[in-house]
Amino acid sequence: MVYKISCLLFAKDANDRLLLLQRAKSPNKGLWSPPGGKLEMSIGESPVECAIRESHEELGVNLNENDLHLFGYVAEKNYEGDGHWLMFLFDVLQEIDSIPNMINEGNFDFFHRNEINHLDIPPTDHRLVWPYFDKRKDGFWGIRANFGSKSTKIKVEAKPI
Question: How would residue 131 be classed by pLDDT, with cut points 50, 70 and 90?
Fold first, then answer.
């Protein structure tokens, strides 16, 4: 299976609402998730460089390394039976002051954190992404998920000391 490496961006506005993308493409077509994208591995792009590039391309925001805080990763084996993912999770420290324009990846909107649990989000995000976003101030998190035909096994690989 193909191994894909990506970053997710957790950006907020002045009202502490999180920016989400309603995806127009697979994976997770039609579902709400944090914006982000795949690393350009052919040029040796780092996760931070990817986050900076994706913030410019998708959000229209120019960030630098000091505008990002890496708070964890999620490693998914056999996601949707289609491949493996390694996702780096970044808090965007700079406020986003408006909803970005629609892009070919989908459309954006802001939501308060308590609204996200009631949105149409990827089912695994309830267990793999949002609980660790909520604990991001505790320190760095590393999560591994093995997707089997009958169940998903989740293991915390790295947690705050």
Answer: very high
- Residue 124 sits at the vertex; the CA angle it makes with 121 and 127, to the nearest 5 degrees, is 110
Range of the domain at 64: 2-158
Q: How far is CA 149 from CA 12, 98, 124, 133, in A?
A: 36, 41, 14, 27
**CA distances (Å), 10 to each of 52, 63, 101, 158, in order?**
12, 13, 17, 20
Q: What is the CATH number of the domain that holds 120?
A: 3.90.79.10
- Residue 90: the pLDDT is 98
- What is the C-alpha radius of gyration for the chain, rounded to an integer number of angstroms? 15
Would you state the pLDDT for residue 18?
A: 98
Nearest to 152 by CA among 130, 126, 133: 126
Per-residue DSSP letter, 25: S
